Protein: Iron-sulfur cluster carrier protein
Amino acid sequence: MLTESSVREILGSLKEPFLHKSLAELDAIEEIKIKEEKNHVSVKIGIARTGTSEQLQLQTQIVNLLKEAGATTVGIRFSQLSDEVLAAHRHAEPEKEENLLNSKNTTFIAIASGKGGVGKSTVSVNLAVALARLGKKVGLIDADIYGFSVPDMMGITKRPVVRGEKIIPVERFGVQVISMGFFVEDNSPIIWRGPMLGKMLNSFFHEVEWGEIDYLLLDLPPGTGDIALDVHSMLPSCKEIIVTTPHPTAAFVAARAGAMAVKTDHEVLGVIENMAYFESKLTGEKEYVFGRGGGDKLAEELNTEVLGRLPLNQPDWNDEDFAPSVYQEDHPLGKLYLDIAEKVVGRLKK
Structure:
């Protein structure tokens, strides 16, 4: 059975990727927790720069070493080393390469849910479009690599082109989009394990020419699996929006995604309650098909607010400019998404 001292011994000789000193020398192993009944080891590691490909490589090394030593599962959090430690070893750190992950001008917003089927991707797509309609420069990563759907939802028929060594994202409705769906033929299933998924997500950050963007939205897979964990470790300053339906079970499960965000120091911007009700066009009556109160309860639990309640409704389809999940600006839901986008921008300015 692994102990705290054995974990320190196993990881202590690993090199911090930027300062090139061992984790033991830098006192960078900040926290170790062991759940003996589940044989689960979780560690918190300090490094010079978070949200980089080097961090992912170190993460893989740590997981492999601890599993070889007998751990069944491994959890990792990364934090930035203190200014004092960085100053003491600054000579060892190379010049910081400017890229999307360390850009001070781009705000990352992850759209998460506890379970599938709550309309998370629909929310991601329409929130991205609404932000673009407000004049913002917006990117959207379809990070639901197993269940990619953004290109179809937005009616995208083109594929990205490669310019030099960079992939140029496809633009639609003023939003730059990248998705696993662009790189798979004939809607084939993806049969990958966690590390490969992390590499693909890393490619979306480093190998795509995003240019100057204000907001980069990530449509996460439902739940708290590998991709969600990678996003939490790669993007320590990422904000999150949690999508749920009013149903108590959906809200209960969504709370897990919210709790994961809180535990990894991600700020939850708010909750969006989707499928909140159905409004009859004939009578104007509202029917609460999935119950009521789930969004409010979730927001209260996460100490945040409900950004908006979206009814069940269908977009107006245009055969000449087909986008089956995008609501037009003058559509009632299009207006609701604009209101939500304005709230998001307002919250980020505070």
